[in-house]
Known about the structure:
It holds the Pfam family Pribosyl_synth. Seems to play a negative regulatory role in 5-phosphoribose 1-diphosphate synthesis. One of its GO terms (molecular function) is ribose phosphate diphosphokinase activity. Binds to PRPS1 and PRPS2. The chain starts with 9 loop residues before the first helix and ends with a helix. It has 11 helices and 13 strands. The strands form 4 sheets. The chain has a 7-stranded mixed β-sheet with strand order 9-8-7-10-11-12-13, sandwiched between helices. Strands 1-4 form a two-stranded parallel ribbon. Strands 2-3 form a two-stranded antiparallel ribbon. The longest helix is centred in the last third of the chain and has 15 residues, at 327-341. Mean pLDDT is 83; it is low at 1-14, 181-187 and 323-327. It is an alpha/beta fold. Helix 2 crosses helix 10.
Amino acid sequence: xxxxxxxxxxxxxxxTKGGLVLFSANSNSSCMELSKKIxxxxxxEMGKVQVYQEPDRETRxxxxxxVRGKDVFIIQTVSNKQCKMRKRGSIVxxxxxxxxxxxxxxxxxxxxxxxxxxQGFFNIPVDNLRASPFLLQYIQEEIPDYRNAVIVAKSxxxxxxxxxxxxxxxLGIAVIHGEAQDAESDLVDGRHSPPMVRSxxxxxxxxxxxxxxxxxxxxxxxxxxxxxxxxxxVDDIIDDVDSFxxxxxxxxxRGAYKIFVMATHGLLSSDAPxxxxxxxxxxxxxxxxxPHEIQKLQCxxxxxxxxxxILSEAIRRIHNGPCTFxxxxxxxxxxxxxxxxx
Length: 342
């Protein structure tokens, strides 16, 4: 079992000081389930709150108990993320960070941000926890003969995460290169400047802007041996599954025995459950940071790993204060210690 607390007696580890209130900010059943698991681990009751929508879709929140002088933790699962600038638009996550801080947020606990630099959008402390110890533990305990597995990055952009998993598990790594270009392209995020012309009327005749050479994707290749082995594709988010399906087909063609997909956040939008069920993927493993109970009913291949333990421990340490230990440093150290053991 994973535990991020330092060496103390079990009774002492579960102590949570008074004055702690937990609220679930969403009436979604999966969000409530995660909130209740966290509350149970902390040994507290869920705060009394009503969150509902009026007929005109206006959201109403009614706090039904006193929170004066207490530490209030609001637990919210999300279903959409955006951290990059689209063309010349705004960076939405920066806007949300500013709004949250302005509303009075004093500390943020989150799990595997898509880009760790998002922490810089907040002017408050941010604890960006990692789900990798739980996913590593799942690989060891639930994938038969995992020692014969290979960790796969479905694109060069995922290679760093795949390398981390491979080093923790003492396994080989494979990288798929040459996949179809996705939405994260130069044309989408506005990096296609300078214009694709050698000169322009507004530019001084003596100056020439170098013409941008268009990208051309090479044929799909797999760097690494996957023949006769279990392939474990790792990423932080699985939403539109097209790239995962293409990767699975490529791995099957290269002789992979079984194919697993491991990700922290399972958005699984649109027809993702049906496509996964009909694909060469044997199992998709995600955490419960985002509700996906309906998708699990549609696709038995989807499995869930509970990460309420590390969230509850982070809340406990923040609430108990510096008289115990530094929250961020000890959580990070404990997570790295578990990964080292794995």
